[in-house]
Amino acid sequence: MRLLDLAGNRWRNQMVADLRKVMKLNRHNSLLKSGRLEESLQEHRAVMEALLRRDAAAAMQRMQAHFRNGTEAAA
């Protein structure tokens, strides 16, 4: 959420906040799937590493992959 705040796009902030509310309902089940909690943690670390390197393209790719993997795990 801090990254969204820094971007200064209030519409996107609200959209993500709404999406997070919906995702919260499915997150519990997806993280209970074998190995998903560790995978999710590694995905978060990969995003942070890209941010620390100031590699916006890599951070975006890794965040998109994280969302995709979370969606697949929740299905």
Number of helices: 4
As a whole number of angstroms, the C-alpha radius of gyration is: 13 Å
The beta-strand count equals 0
What are the segments in which pLDDT stays under 50 over at least 5 consecutive residues? none
Shape: flat
Q: What string gives the helices and strands in order?
A: HHHH
Helix-strand makeup class? mainly alpha
Domain count: the total is 1
Any overview of this molecule?
There is one protein chain. The chain is mainly α and 75 residues long. It has one domain. Helix content is 87%, strand content 0%. The chain is built from 4 helices and no strands. Helix 2 (10-32) crosses helix 4 and helix 3 runs antiparallel to helix 4. The protein is flat and about 35 Å long.
What's the layout of helices and strands?
Elements: H1 2-7, H2 10-32, H3 36-52, H4 56-74
Short description:
With 75 residues, the protein is an all-alpha fold.
Overview features:
single chain; 75 residues; mainly alpha; 87% helix; flat
